[in-house]
TrEMBL record:
<keyword id="KW-0472">Membrane</keyword>
<keyword id="KW-1133">Transmembrane helix</keyword>
<feature type="transmembrane region" description="Helical">
    <location>
        <begin position="388"/>
        <end position="408"/>
    </location>
</feature>
<feature type="transmembrane region" description="Helical">
    <location>
        <begin position="225"/>
        <end position="250"/>
    </location>
</feature>
<protein>
    <submittedName>
        <fullName>Enterobactin exporter EntS</fullName>
    </submittedName>
</protein>
<dbReference type="InterPro" id="IPR036259">
    <property type="entry name" value="MFS_trans_sf"/>
</dbReference>
<dbReference type="GO" id="GO:0005886">
    <property type="term" value="C:plasma membrane"/>
</dbReference>
<feature type="transmembrane region" description="Helical">
    <location>
        <begin position="45"/>
        <end position="63"/>
    </location>
</feature>
<keyword id="KW-1003">Cell membrane</keyword>
<feature type="transmembrane region" description="Helical">
    <location>
        <begin position="356"/>
        <end position="376"/>
    </location>
</feature>
<dbReference type="Pfam" id="PF05977">
    <property type="entry name" value="MFS_3"/>
</dbReference>
<feature type="transmembrane region" description="Helical">
    <location>
        <begin position="12"/>
        <end position="33"/>
    </location>
</feature>
<feature type="transmembrane region" description="Helical">
    <location>
        <begin position="161"/>
        <end position="180"/>
    </location>
</feature>
<feature type="transmembrane region" description="Helical">
    <location>
        <begin position="256"/>
        <end position="280"/>
    </location>
</feature>
<feature type="transmembrane region" description="Helical">
    <location>
        <begin position="107"/>
        <end position="126"/>
    </location>
</feature>
<dbReference type="InterPro" id="IPR020846">
    <property type="entry name" value="MFS_dom"/>
</dbReference>
<feature type="transmembrane region" description="Helical">
    <location>
        <begin position="186"/>
        <end position="204"/>
    </location>
</feature>
Length: 417
């Protein structure tokens, strides 16, 4: 990974540093939250509800978040979102200390956990949309693939390579410890964003909320390739969440892993993401954006099929590694394409519409994963039921990939549309 961009661009360094720190905390909580849920209950539907609550804001708040992002100071929005996430995470610490599991009322405890997850997810929607929107004003258009690749590699290193194993260690020390750590990372991330000096941006004159929102909807409707990518991303993310939500139970009940082992399994995915972030710009330049997305489809479907038949943690780790590599290839190509194509004064709104379709399906997928297991377990048994979300994801993504091969054609990198 070339560090030239970070050396010459201080604002980019602060942005990458903040993303890395906050993603370290996210990586810790990504293991700690579902693990806490499994200590409260073993019901797959209740466990899936915590993931649904955390992702539901991407369905409910993404569209208005785009309008807000284009209206106000994006840097200030990121700071406020990180401070809010710090406060909410400290609330989880208070919950665990007040009523450590096992608890007398699992449903009530899961409900409280879902409420906090929803608030954290709401702040994440605002923060992430602002961060992705501010990047083109921090780096040159020619540097977007490199900037996105570096940023996502660092996020993967911190969020999935370092975070999950660290969470396992922290859980072994004390159940509240990972949430305390997460709160500290949000505070540090807010401080790093505060150090940025973003060029002054003259926001367009405010009109009615509906008018501004419709401008984003109309723009993306007129750009067929972008909304087509958004719909396909929604299917990809729904399948991914169905699989990921049940991975904590798959690790425990099928692979026989503890918290540390599960964390190491997630780390395998992180390694693939890191390598993917480093090589994706070069792959996209060599084979082109369109063919890069075709490769990603093959990796997605094949890896979920492999997890569905695996009995060894090593095999599952390899599959997660390759799937993450494909995800980074998809992200680098599609996000860089959008950042070039969308005008700056519409970037927040169009990104929010894109994410409404692309990310709004994540809570649907998370709930589907739990419902599939709960429906199949009485007749097929626990192990087969836990494999079913992976087989389903492989089949759906194989069909989606075929549609993508027939319909996706990206312009040459660097072209403006």
């Amino acid at each position: 990974m070339s560090l030239t961009l970070m050396r010459r661009n201080a604002n980019y360094r602060w942005l990458v540093g903040a993303s890395g720190v906050s993603n370290l905390g996210d990586g810790v909580s990504a293991l700690a939250f579902p693990w806490l849920a499994t200590l409260i209950t073993r019901d797959p539907v209740l466990i899936s509800l915590t993931a649904v609550a955390g992702r539901l804001p991407w369905l409910l708040l993404t569209l208005p978040a785009g309008v807000w992002t284009d209206r106000i100071d994006r840097r200030r929005l990121m700071i406020r979102a990180d401070v809010f996430r710090m406060v909410m995470t400290l609330g989880v610490v208070a919950m665990v200390l007040a009523a450590p599991p096992p608890v007398a009322s699992p449903g009530l405890a899961i409900g409280a956990l879902c409420a906090v997850a929803f608030l954290l997810g709401s702040a994440e929607v605002l923060r992430d949309n602002a961060a992705q929107t501010v990047l083109p004003s921090v780096v040159r258009p020619a540097d977007l693939e490199a900037a996105n690749g570096q940023m996502w590699s660092i996020e993967r290193i911190m969020g999935e390579f370092v975070g999950p194993p660290l969470a396992g260690v922290l859980i072994a020390l004390s159940l509240p410890a990972p949430f305390v750590f997460d709160a500290v990372t949000f505070a540090l991330a807010a401080g790093l964003i505060w150090m940025m000096v973003v060029p002054t941006r003259i926001a367009p004159a405010r009109r009615s909320f509906r008018v501004e929102l419709m401008e984003g909807l109309i723009w993306i409707w007129r750009h067929v390739m972008i909304w087509r990518l958004a719909i396909i991303l929604g299917v990809i993310n729904a399948c991914a969440m169905a699989a990921l939500t049940m991975l904590v139970l798959f690790s425990q009940d099928v692979l026989g892993l503890g918290a540390v082992g599960h964390g190491l399994l997630l780390t395998c995915g992180a390694v693939g993401g890191v390598i993917g972030g480093m090589i994706a710009p070069a792959v996209a330049r060599r084979v082109g954006g369109t063919r890069s997305l075709w490769v990603a489809f093959v990796l997605f479907s094949g890896c979920y099929a492999l997890i569905g038949v695996a009995t060894s943690p090593v095999v599952v780790g390899v599959a997660l590694f390759v799937e993450s590599l494909g995800a980074m290839l998809w992200n680098v190509v599609t996000v860089s394409f959008r950042q070039r194509a969308i005008p700056d004064d519409l970037l927040g709104r169009v990104n929010s519409v894109y994410r409404f379709f692309g990310w709004g399906m994540m809570p649907v997928g998370a709930l589907a994963g739990g419902l599939i297991v709960a429906w199949a377990e009485p007749s097929l048994g626990r192990e087969t039921a836990l494999r079913l979300p992976y087989w389903s994801a492989a089949a759906v993504l194989a069909g989606t990939g075929l549609i993508g091969v027939l319909t996706i054609r990206l312009p040459v990198s660097g072209a403006k549309k």
